[in-house]
Write a structure and sequence with these properties.
Elements (H helix, E strand, L loop, with lengths): L1 H21 L1 H5 L3 H19 L6 H23 L1 H8 L3 E5 L2 E2 L1 H6 L4 H10 L8 E6 L5 E5 L22 E5 L2 E2 L1 H7 L3 H8 L7 E6 L5 E5 L4 E3 L1
Antiparallel strand pairs: 1-2, 1-3, 3-4, 5-6, 5-7, 7-8, 8-9
Length: about 230
């Protein structure tokens, strides 16, 4: 049992390192080649864990080779669009200028009711309001509404919305997040001025952005905004 646990730990750390090399885009949006690589990695990692007789190197070397190959192909695809087309294909335009393309649906093996379901998931219940709908290379749907169906933007009504940055967590579960302090350029003393007389141990979450907007959630209390 101890040997299996040790081998599992080694494989886990090794895979975590290489998945970090692949980057967050590959983890969150798998394309065809990336999906194949993920399947191969899972299979290669499982063998030495389940069978102690299999040497670790028989898994670690192929895993490293597959990850290096994936990084190399991704780099080529980024530089040469025709190579990306070979490996990942092209987006399929299912709706063009408001008209559903039956041949594109058939080629992508998507039924009309599945198309309607995907439009609803994108917040569009009426297909007549869609200008373009595409099936992207990673299998996700993109929807572009007709101009008259798009929501108004602040520029349309000649108004400028208030600026707001992204919320950086400064206190998490009662502990000060020092990397968050560095991100917005404040000290621990300045943080204590922001939270006032409230002890950090009483705070579940406290965030602030570079525009000065603050947000606090205390333990056993409702949300508070400052």
């Amino acid at each position: 049992m101890l040997i299996i646990s040790f081998r599992t730990l080694i494989i886990f750390l090794f895979l975590s390192f290489f998945m970090r090399l692949l980057g967050k885009r590959q983890v969150g949006q798998l394309e065809i080649g990336e999906f194949i690589s993920a399947l191969l990695l899972s299979e290669l990692a499982a063998f030495p864990i389940s069978d102690p007789d299999v040497p670790l190197l028989h898994a670690l070397l192929p895993i490293g080779l597959i990850v290096c190959l994936e990084i190399f192909i991704s780099s080529l695809c980024a530089r040469f669009p025709f190579i990306k087309k070979i490996f990942d294909g092209c987006p399929a335009v299912l709706i063009r200028k408001g008209q559903v393309d039956p041949s594109a649906l058939s080629k992508a093996r998507i039924s009309p009711d599945e198309l309607l379901a995907q439009l609803r998931l994108k917040g569009c219940a009426d297909p007549s309001k869609v200008d373009y709908a595409l099936l992207e290379q990673n299998g996700q749907f993109s929807v572009v509404l007709k101009s008259e169906s798009q929501p108004l933007s602040p520029s349309d009504i000649k108004k400028k919305p208030a600026d707001c940055g992204y919320a950086v967590p400064l206190v998490i579960c009662g502990r000060i997040n020092r990397s968050g302090l560095d991100a917005i350029g404040i000290t621990e003393q300045e943080l204590k001025k922001k939270i006032g007389n409230i002890a950090t141990s009483e705070i579940l979450l406290f965030t602030s952005d570079d525009c000065g907007n603050e947000y606090m959630v205390r333990y056993n209390s409702k949300k508070e905004e400052q």
